[in-house]
Amino acid sequence: MPPASIDLSRRRFGAGALSALVVPFMAGCEDAGFAGQRPGKGGGDAALLLPLSGANAAIGAAMMQAASLAGSGRSAEALPRTYDTGDTPEGAAKAAQDALAAGARMLFGPLRSDQTPAVLKVAGRVPVVTFSNDDRLALSGAFVFGVTAAQSVSAMFSYALAQGLTRVAVVASPGALGAASADAAVRIAAAGGLNLSATLLRDPAASGLVQALRVASGGVLPQAVFVPDGGGALAGFARGLRGSGMQIMGSVQWGIGDAAANGDLEGAVFAAPAPDLFQPFSDRTLATYGTEPGVVAALGYDAVLVALGLGDAGQLTRQGLQRKAGFTGVLGNFRFLKDGPCQRDLSVLGIRNGKIILRAEVAQT
Prior knowledge:
Layout lengths: L3 E3 L39 E5 L6 H14 L10 E4 L4 H13 L4 E3 L7 H8 L4 E3 L12 E2 L4 H14 L4 E6 L3 H17 L2 E7 L7 H8 L7 E4 L3 H11 L5 E4 L5 H6 L7 E4 L2 H15 L5 H18 L5 H4 L5 E3 L2 E5 L5 E3 L1 E7 L2 E8 L3
């Protein structure tokens, strides 16, 4: 069966909006996988730690709007209370202390990786589900809820193998995302039997990208190249790869509108949340607030779904978070592993004639 064609050109599933086993969108999505369960106390004993002031206040406001949509129809007492973390670790610690003093038994947040250790320090045995996408925080005891570089790498490398593309490279801008993507690529390629021929961290505007890949790959170009960056960096790398014949692969960082409109990305594929889950949420947000949400805002929605479901089940615990069935939210199916990371089932979207098509559905294992 040919891939389904869906016109998602105006959508932005990637981080640009704010800076896979795919199941149909239905009522079961709205309770994070607790279908048929009778509403109980809900998430009143959970808390959201969001940046409602400071440099990230706009992101915090978008997350709070999404959280409000997830909790519509439930009483205020059944919903998590929200606390402002501000910009600093001290602000995040104070927010956590206030939430714990009010009886919180599970903390969702903070947003930033540099604030998360401060929250962990005061949380004690109370589970902390950070919105950061820094997988290293799991080593300190946090559950990492952000969409990570490794999740995009895993989805795209699985797709590459399914297409018979066994020689891959990574090209990224220097910085945290590039470093995390390169590290994940090394680990995931080795585990999956892929030949990672090169990892290049370089200026997107620099010339000679194809030749640099050829040299780094021992004189033979890879079959595919993974480019995690979005925005202007993606545009620069796409220009450098034009006409190379390599399959361009990308991450959740890609903005759908920008990617579809870029002729240099014709034929590219990239990881994204399942459209049939994210789109209804995006449409509802647009109708209610007049803005389209991004992935980070959607984390706020899914956090409330988890809090409501676990609260109704009396399972606002570490064991509840690690339920084998996992959860379903607007960002797709996900499950928390025992040591803290989150597995996500992402879709693979492709670009054809300036439109977005669903290429594959990839379940992470």
